[in-house]
Amino acid sequence: MTFRTNLQYLRSRRNMTQEQLAMLLGVSRQAISKWESEKAYPEMDKLLTICDLFGCTLDDLVLGDVAHPTSPESAAAPVGVVDVATATVVSDAGTDAVSLPKDLTGYDEHRRRFALLIASGVAAIIASVGVAGLFDPEHSILGPSPLNDFLAFACICVGVIVGLALLIPAAVSHEAFKRRHPYVEDFYTEDDRGHESRLLAAGVVAGVAEILVGIAIVVYAGDVLGIDAGWPNAIMLLLDAVAVFGFVYFGLRRGLLNIDAYNEDAETERRKREGTLPFSARLAGAVFGIIMLVATIIGLTLLFLGVDDHLFWIPWPIGGLLCAITGIVIGLFKDRLDR
Question: What residues does the HTH cro/C1-type domain cover (predicted)?
């Protein structure tokens, strides 16, 4: 078999298109097409990357037959099991080694780091409000002091700064990762997904327990101790911060295992930068932005005018509901809009 035939065979075994392989290798689709039509030949670094990607040797890829490898490593693998060293699965027939997908882009490390930064940023902001509660004028840990208001404000400012210092770099790095790697091959196994699902379940249960403990402390302090502000609210918010950290961290870790969704989002971003998004997608984005902008203006107006401190948040969920309804309507007429 020639290199062309070997490459086509390896792609077909993974159900991988030329464009997907091109994105994994950092080349154009036309380059893959030229390789497979023998109009051009890849450089050595690309050949080695292909070997890593498909779990074959350079000799088999260039000179041999990847369907029937002759390398000692492949021949020595037990039938029907995974060879961890080479990431291959040998079929029961003992003649065909199928390479398992590998994390060549560093996606898993990025997934864990992104989830940690986002969860930490959100938790830091919530925790800062809790710490600020320790300096409530009526029940401050310092007692009556002119510093209470300043310290409460300083705590919130520090928390917001720390939160933004974590959230903004996380978002920027995620967008940069999607630009560098617009396609990631799904290398996660069902065991990986099961493990992350169990972690998410444990995080949700622990978080709900922490929230309930915080509520119990506030109720006890108010009904028994006669303290309706200050440290009870601070403890509740700190527990809420820990709970939210678990929800966000384990939720993102589990959600980012959906490689298909990641690839769709990356493709959408690429088409958005190139200005090739379909009209329905551009229309939906514009309408969603307008709805949430109006909701934000209304919510902030209610907050600063003091109309009702307990109702200022209502425009945001209403805006989210309207966005969902709009998305459904646009989806129903998607084909007609994109003509």
Answer: 7-61
